[in-house]
Structures are given as structure tokens and as C-alpha cells.
Protein 1
Amino acid sequence: MEREDQGRIRVAVLLSSGEQFSAYFGGALARWTYEVYRGLASQVDAQVFGFPTAPADRYPLSHATSSASVICRAMAQIPLLRRYEEEVWLRALLRRLRVFDVIHIHNRPQWIHLLRHLGYQGALVLHLQNDHLGHWSTVMLDELAGQLESVAVCSGYLRDTFASRSSAIASKTRVVFNGVNPEVFSPREETRQSKTIFFVGRFESEKGVMQLVQAFARVLGTHGDARLVIGGATGFGTHQETPYVREVRAQAARLIECHPGCIEFVGYLHHDRDLPGWFQKATIFACPSLFQEPFGLVNAEAMACGTPVVGSNRGGIPEVLGDAGILVDPNDTNGFADELSRLLAQPERRAQLGNVGLKRVRERFDWQVIGRDWTALLADANAARRSEMSRNQLAM
């Protein structure tokens, strides 16, 4: 693991083998990788490895893929082979990975053991944005702790799903929040629209779109001129008219019959080009997630635009909002509707929440803040691994 430049850490970033490194076709992991590592160019030599991505769609960072990507794509279509797809992808990368000081692994704890088994000697950092360790036993977590240098999680909620079962893994776990680009997401009060409630997210039942439409029906009883804008699709840049989507649209159609134009479905939104404008125009951002969101980045992005948030009391969302938003039980559609209605009628409170949210984002969720935290984590992981390797050599 010799290095030409002792002042810079060489980092390989492993997206899951199926995620494109793109603002449009990629997800939160690709965005996190781009935003953080582009700000660390003077301190870190980063190489991103992920799913093949067309140059026109790709983030402007060094990106490569496994030579086995075509094979893996074929394996993914065969049920008996699908489970081995990512292992084949990773094994094909091994020769190229050996030269890096640190491997940053997104959301794939099973890759830790495989990389050690294949002989990788550098530092391993596991970065979790989802609950991949919540079902692991104490024995499994202790074993994992012995094979890596650090676990980064996007919220205290996510840490608490597993860390209490293993003091070894807890001692190596840090919270590193997700972030927002203030150059992209910022207030534009001159575009703010009256009584417009905005939602964006995957068009799936766990995101609570139906509950939001049901709550909005009650809002219309108080604010007949209110408007609901629903953004999002069933996939990254793709959409299917699933039974759930059709059910939500049917519910919305009944409301539109009585209140023409009250609900608009705007479809999938390009994260950097289209999404900020909708946050800036919204009077309120609504996040009705039914499941335990590990973080809930859309809430921070809304706050960065000075938009007050009425959000679900699930998972990491309360950590994001702090005192800058209103928490609700999304299954209590009456209570949800009442909070939306009250906030629509209170411009001074909206302004106060918007200002507090904007301040909170700048202090905690700016990518520069996240970058400083991540630089420290990489340095600590690299130093810990080198120290351990030195001890092992002295013991031989």
C-alpha cells in the first residue's frame, strides 16, 4: 500500500453495483458521494466505482465500473444467479481496489467480510443510509466490528437500530448527516405561491401519498383555494402506473371534480434542475412517510429553501427538523390536516419556521460541514488501520 503523495488519502467509493452515478438516474448515495468528494479534492484522491453511466448523465467526478458489469446485468435476470451478482461485480474490481488506502462502502455490510477474505489490507468504512444491520445478532455485529475501521450512519435513529447490541460496533459508529447544496437549494420568496402544499418522493405506499391526499381533502374544507402538488415517480427517472398509483390518482380525481385544479401530479423531477424551484414556490412542504425514514433529505432541502415543513414523526425526520418544523402522525389524517390548515392560515408562523429551518440547514446540513466531518472520519480510519498493521508487523 505504498503511496506517492503522503499528504492525500486515496479512497475507493463503492456504490451498489446497480446505482448509476447520475443526478437524474442515481439516488441519494450517488448524490452524497458527488457532493462530499468534490469538496475534498485537495485532501483526498477519490475514485468512484458504480453501475455503467452514460458520460452525458454522469456526475463530473472520476468514475469507473467493474469489467463484469455486463455479466452481472445478465445474472440479475436469472433468479438462481441473482444473489451472486454483486459478489461477481466486486471480485472483478479487486485488483484495482488494492492500491487504495480506504474503501468507502455504501450500504453493503456483507462486502466487508468478502474484501477481507480476498486479502484487502487497507481501511474499510461502511456507510449506511438504510437499516441493513437492524436484524444482525450481537455475534455478527462483533465480528463485523473486528473487520472494519468505521461505520458511518446518517442519523442517530439509524445508529440506535443496531449499536446497542454490540459495544464493539458502537465504539466504531459515527453519525454523519446527509447534506444540502445551498447554491442549488436556497430561498426565492418572490416565487412563493399562495396556499400551495408540495410533496416529493417515491410514489409508493410507504411514503404516505394516499394519507396526504386524504388529509388534503379535509384541508379543502377550510381552504377551498388550496393546492396540492405531488412530485415523484416509482423509480429513478422511470415510472409505472402501479395499482397504488392508480388508487391515489382516483382519490385525487374525486377531489378535483369538486375543486378543479386543486391537485397536480408533476412526475419525476430532476434533482438539481427542477426540484429547487418547487420547494421555493411551495407554501408548505409535507412529508407524510409511514415508514421509519433513516434521514429524510427532502425535509432538509425544503428547509434550505426557507419552506416550513409538516413532517412525519418517524425515524430520523425529527432529527432533521429539530425545532424548525411540525411533527405529525401521518396515519392521523385529521390531525395531519389540521396542522396543514393552521399553518396555511399563519403567515408569521410560516416565516418564523422558514427562518429557523434555513439557519439549521446552514449550521448542520451544508455539504461543507458534512465534508469536514467526513475528512476527519477518513483520516481516523486510515490512521487506525495503519496503526493496527504496524502492531501486527511488530508482533510477527
Protein 2
Amino acid sequence: MNGITQRASGHKYNKAARYFAIACGLLLICGTAIQAQKKEGSHIHVIVDLVQLNVAVTDNKGNYVTGLRPQDFLVSEDGISQKLATFSEGNERTRRVTEVTGSDGKPTTPANDTPDLPAQVSGETLGSIVSGASVFILFDTSNYMYRGFVFAQDAIADFVRSLEGADKVAFYSYSRNLSREAALTADRATVLRGVRTTVAGDDAALYNCLLLTVKDAAQYTGRKVIVVFSNGPDNASMVPPEDVAELAQSTGIPIYMISTQQARLEPVSTAVFERMTAATGGKAYFAKDWKEERRAFASIRDDLAHLYALSYYPQSNPNLGWRTITVKLAGDRLKGYHIRTRNGYRPQPPRLSTGGSDSASLSLEGPG
């Protein structure tokens, strides 16, 4: 019996010794790796947000103002002046600000024939949408849509065909649940099939489904926009519209909403639609009939074709909550013009990573 006890004790001792030896080995390896990393010049990558803005500029008559350059825009965040990193207008390719302006801050090429004043053109003069955009269309197929269903499908189909310059289009429909009829694709035929196969359904959970659409769009890089066609108020959502608006703002996705007079008769829905679109930099339309629906879609297409795309890396800011964005135009010659863009965002938590290098560096990325 004593022999058995001694063998068991010896076995436990040998097992413990092996674990101790393994632990020492791991510590030695880790220590060696740390020392090697120090010799190589280790550094920390600080990942911060790149804030992107879609900015519409119009005059007192509602005409789009074109020909502006980076130095014409003054951007601040919580009152802190920001330096633009990239810039583009309409269907121009996005460029670094240093490519648009020289070292002296002046344009590298003339903005227009009359540099003292920006050119103004109506919506009909530009035939193509902003290049490189991803457009997500969300169509109300709830029981509110029984009457004008076919006319709405026709208006959406025409809108899809008109998006010649957009990179990709996605088509979703909703009633109580979201249906992803056509995932984001460059194939317009696939999107049109999705439009034509929709059928009228149940109650309307607009805000639930719009939140899911925003989350889908946020997964993609580049410029994104959501266009919603709604025929009535929300009567089935669990998500408040304020949550949807904040996520869209924080991810830099403008929301455009086209609704019918039926929603217009609902004061609460009218106020929510207008507040949500304004906060994200989009617009709300209320159409009396199918002809006005078509005009609303055409207006959205023209609006997208005239947007300025600005981006900046935020200056140091202790505020980790909601940050207010202000965009103004510089100089007396631009007074009286109106600006429409998102009014703020909530920054993502900072993320850190390590790596080897001779000097410290920044890795910059973020939403919107």
C-alpha cells in the first residue's frame, strides 16, 4: 500500500515538474520575442476614424452650386477646425486635397471660367450620377401599398435604369420583415427582376428594416446612399427612428425618403421622415401621385450627381460621445448659399495594434 502511495506521489511530482518546465520555456520564448521586438523598434498603430461627408450646396433658388474647391469649405467638429484630406465633386474621382490644390493652397487647375463666382447649373445639365456610389433601395411592400403598387414599381424601375454611373445597386423590400431581393450588384437586370417580383404583404416595420439596411450598407467602403419608398407610417417596429438616424449619421450614409400623401397625413411620420433625412444629409419627398413619385426619384438622382465628397482625419478631441459637425463656406462671395450634410457622428472606440518598425506610425480608418 505504501509503495502504491509513493508511486502516486512520484507521478504527481513528475507531472508538476513537467508543467513547471513548460511554463519556464514559454516565459523564456516570450521574453526573447519581446527583446527582439524592442531591438527591431516596435511601435503601436493607432486606428482612428476617417470622417466622410456628402455635401450639397444650393443657392436661394434651389439651383446646385458647382465649381467649388477644397479651400472654399470650412469644416469643424465640436468647434475644432479640421483639415480636409480628400475631395471630389459630382462624378469626379476622389483625390487627395494636395492633388486638387498646390502647396500654396491655390487650385492646380481653374475651377471654372469665372473664378470669382462658382458656376451654377440646373439639375438637368448633368446626366450621370456620382461615379462609384453604392445605392441601396428599400421598397415598402406592406398593406399600405395595395393601391399604387404597380405605379411604384414602375417608378423604382425607371430610377434603377437611370443610375448609369453608380457602381452597384441593391434592392430590398419590407413589410413586417426585410427581404433582400437583390444584393448589391452591378447587374441592373438582377435588380429589376427583384423589383418586379415583389408582392404586397403585411404590416409595416419600416424602422426595423431600415436599421438592417443601414447595417448592410455600412459594411461596404466608398460612398453609399439609401433611398426609401414608403407609402405610410410605421406600425410594427420595435426600433425607434432615433436609433436608425444615429447609426446612419455615424456611418456617413445619407437617407432619402419618398412617401405618398397617406404618410403626409400622419403628422408624426411626416416629422420623423423630415428629421431623419435632414440629420443624415438626405431629403424627404411627399408625392401626391405616380408622376410626382417619378419626379422625386429624378430629383434624388440629380442631387447625388451634384454632391461634394469631403473627408478628414479628426483632430484631437476628448469627446468620446456625440460630435457635432459644422460645414460652412469661406469668403464673402459665397454668402447666401445653403449647405446640406449630416450634422454629426458618434466615434468608434479606438483600436490599437503593434508591429515592428524604425519609427512610430498611424493606421487610419473609420466609418462613413
